[in-house]
Write a structure and sequence with these properties.
The complex is a heterodimer of chains A (490) and B (95). Chain A is an alpha/beta fold and 490 residues long. Chain A is 38% helix and 13% strand. Chain A has a domain at 3-259: Amidase signature (AS) enzymes (Alpha-Beta Complex). In chain A, strands 1-3-2-4-6-5-10-11-9-7-8 form an eleven-stranded mixed beta sheet, with helices on both faces. In chain A, helix 7 (219-229) packs antiparallel against helix 15 (461-475), helix 9 packs across helix 11 and helix 9 (304-319) packs across helix 14 (424-432). Chain A is globular and about 65 Å long. Chain A starts with 7 loop residues before the first helix and ends in a 15-residue tail after the last helix. Chain B has a domain at 1-41. Chain B is mainly α and 95 residues long. Chain B has three helices and two strands. The chains are: A alpha/beta (490), B mainly alpha (95). Chains A and B meet through helix 9, helix 10, helix 11, helix 12 and helix 13 of A and helix 1 and helix 2 of B.
């Protein structure tokens, strides 16, 4: 196995034993990037010089006794995290040349323990989309099948990890944007509890639903990255002030006696038969490991898409108002007054961003506010209560991560409603703020990865990770690599 | 949603629309609205709204002096900066 294909915990052992250096790992990563990036297109910006300087510093830190498992590990970061001195575009022409003067808290925490920033990954503009086709710069292709999307909006992060172009990545998840691309690309993705990982310095889409989380090769790596980025931050008023447990210690392999809920509403007709079979197979495996699987009901889940869409659009219309061309970013060259400057500048937004801003503005208008926005906030309460009730019986809840495996380019973008409906399995966890993990649980006949979602009680990441890890250890999935092969130079 | 309604919302949102968007958005948005009206049938009588999913008590930071962003860095991304100010087109009209 090449260094660029190894997990963080494998690399940690090699680094601690002094068998490899951070520099050598980074060289392997950039060799893979040179070979496949032209096809995959995971990155918007590569930080070659900065990364080698950070790798050198990491090697010095390791020599001086640094014990963080992330020290010297090459990590990719979605391009909606502010990175000091490194362009941060959100895949939008409005921010094409924007260079933040500071690091997002999650990025600062990674740097502090010696992680190496490989580059900034592609996304749907401002995180609005499920295929990374809404990037205003280029498409990212799924390393498992280049004719298919990597998912989105953290599609670049998922593709980078799957293709061996980074050991791990950070993504953001507003309605499934970590979990859906992770599932499509055959990796692990975790959306933690709302408030566990501070969002300071991440460009807001819908701030009551936005989450930061790890995208990794396995569950242990997700625990290691979460450990580094979780914890209270006085710069984020929604950040949770509580003690952070040892997530790796939760990976005991023992799930005997745990009650696993399987919501009937998420196993219905919309589900692809191969995905359904894989999820039932996973449920059977969890039972064989000593858990009991019980059918449960989340009666308001059928309203989740509509609820989610209204709240997200309302929050986006407010958050994206800051992109007005006054203080940073693109500004139209000629405008006779400020209002026309705003309007013409914001004409450069992509269609999905505009659609959501327009819808959100409409939902918040006098006369519509109560019909749409306030109504959705109340239904959100009912959805949250469904989960609270279910968690009185269950330790975790499982479901598919996505209704199908990765789809082809252009397949869903033409009908917004169809695209939104594919968020049904993931967006409920954003509405309720609960932790949700996706782990690979099989392949379709065409060889595309399928994801299993594991949801837990607020701040019970240990249970979610424990179940995901136990499943992963016993699933016995055939070890497959994406089809994107390294092309050797001569 | 009619084109006229769409254009009114676009002005409120300060978003310029292309000809193609004026063509396709009214029907797409009408479809979305008809889909989300499914919520009309949900009984939310006596249900409180959830603005944030996890309740977090408000707190005050310690009143400690910390270094802040230097002015030149704060202004570095400005599209039109003059004498330490962001310059924009005239707001107040001449008499």
């Amino acid at each position: 196995m090449q260094l660029n294909e190894m997990s963080i915990h494998q690399l940690r052992e090699l680094l601690r034993a002094g068998e490899v250096s951070s520099r050598e790992i980074l060289e392997a990563v950039f060799a893979k990037i040179d070979a496949v990036e032209g096809e995959v297109g995971a990155y918007l910006t590569l930080c070659y010089d900065e990364a080698f300087a950070q790798a050198q510093r990491a090697d010095e830190m390791l020599a001086a006794g640094e014990t963080s498992p992330l020290c010297g590990i090459p990590i990719a970061v979605k391009d909606n995290f502010s990175t000091a001195g490194v362009r941060t575009t959100c895949a939008s022409r409005l921010l094409e040349n924007y260079i933040p003067p500071y690091d997002a808290s999650a990025v600062a925490r990674l740097k502090q323990v010696g992680a190496v920033l490989v580059g900034k990954t592609n996304l749907d503009e401002f995180g609005l989309g499920s295929s990374t086709e809404n990037s205003q710069f280029h498409c990212t292709r799924n390393p498992w099948d280049l004719s298919r999307v990597p998912g989105g909006s953290s599609g670049g992060s998922a593709a980078a990890v799957a293709a061996g172009e980074a050991a791990a990545a950070l993504g953001t998840d507003t309605g499934g944007s970590i979990r859906q691309p992770a599932a499509f690309c055959g990796i692990v993705g975790l959306k933690p509890t709302y408030g566990l990982v501070p969002r300071y310095g991440v460009v807001a889409a819908a701030d009551s639903m936005d989450h930061i989380g790890p995208m990794t090769r396995d569950v242990r790596d997700a625990a290691l990255v979460l450990q580094a980025i979780a914890g209270w931050d006085p710069k984020d008023p929604t950040s949770a002030r509580r003690d952070i447990p040892d997530y790796e210690a939760a990976l005991t392999g023992n799930i005997k006696g745990l009650v696993v809920g399987l919501p009937q509403e998420l196993m219905g007709d919309a589900l692809d038969p191969e995905v359904r079979e894989a999820v039932f197979g996973a449920a059977n495996l969890l039972e064989s490991l000593g858990a009991s699987v019980e059918e449960i009901s989340l009666p308001h889940v059928e309203y989740a898409i509509a609820t989610f869409y209204i709240i997200v659009s309302a929050e986006i219309s407010s958050n994206l108002a800051r992109f007005d061309g006054v203080r940073y970013g693109y500004r139209v060259a000629e405008a006779e007054d400020t209002v026309s400057m705003f309007i013409k500048t914001r004409e450069a937004l992509g269609q999905e961003a505009k659609r959501r801003i327009l819808m959100g503005t409409y939902f918040l208008q006098a006369g519509n506010y109560e019909t749409y926005y306030l109504k959705a906030l109340k239904v959100r309460t009912l959805i949250k209560e469904d989960f609270e009730k279910a968690f009185q019986r269950c330790h975790v809840i499982i479901s598919p991560t996505t209704p199908t495996a990765a789809f082809a380019f252009g397949h869903k973008t033409r009908t917004p409603v169809t695209m939104y409906q594919s968020d049904i399995y993931t967006c409920t966890a954003n509405l309720a703020g609960i932790p949700a993990l996706t782990v690979p649980c099989g392949y379709t006949q065409e060889g595309l990865p399928i994801g299993l979602q594991i949801m837990g009680k607020p701040f019970d990441e240990p249970a979610v990770l424990r179940v995901g890890h136990a499943y992963e250890q016993h699933a016995g999935l055939p070890l497959r690599q994406p089809q994107t092969e390294v092309k050797t130079n001569g | 949603m009619t084109l006229q309604e769409l254009e009114a919302v676009a002005v409120t949102a300060r978003v310029g629309l292309t000809e193609e968007e004026k063509e396709i958005f009214p029907e797409q948005i009408s479809q979305i609205i008809s889909h989300i009206r499914v919520l009309d049938g949900v009984d939310t009588h006596g249900t409180a709204p959830t603005y944030y999913p996890i309740k977090q008590a408000a707190f005050l930071r310690e009143d400690e002096v910390e270094p802040s962003l230097p002015k030149d860095q704060a202004l570095a991304n400005g599209p039109d900066v003059v004498d330490g100010y962001f310059r924009v087109p005239r707001i107040i009209e001449e008499e």
